[in-house]
Write a structure and sequence with these properties.
single chain; mainly alpha; globular; 5 helices
Length: 115
């Protein structure tokens, strides 16, 4: 699979996650380890839809991949802080942190290969 197809796949995943966060914000955000915070879910859903649009519509996905990677790193930091302070359920937030950190690293690596 070439890098542009991978970037498109990242865009499709962002689209799916964004739609899930808007359709069922409390349930989706809880599954990510951020407790029951529907407003946070809606905010992150809109963010993911904006990133999806950029990734899927742009001829140059590199800046959009970097933005996606930064947002995933921010999610990882939010989850780590929430788990450490007790604001988020520790077990689920730790798993969410690992997933977000991996997606962030993948996004940065893919952006680097593209450009």
């Amino acid at each position: 699979m070439d890098e542009y197809k991978l970037a498109r796949s990242v865009g499709l995943v962002s689209l799916g996650v964004g739609l899930a966060l808007l359709a069922a914000p409390a349930r989706t955000i809880e599954s990510f380890g951020m407790g029951e915070r529907p407003n946070l879910g809606r905010f992150l859903g809109v963010r993911d839809l904006i990133l999806a649009a950029g990734l899927l519509r742009s001829e140059n996905p590199t800046p959009w991949l970097r933005a996606r990677a930064v947002s995933d790193a921010t999610d990882a930091a939010l989850l780590a802080g929430g788990a450490a302070s007790g604001a988020f359920p520790r077990g689920r937030a730790t798993f969410g942190f690992a997933v977000a950190a991996c997606f962030s690293a993948f996004g940065f690596a893919l952006a680097r290969r593209l450009g």
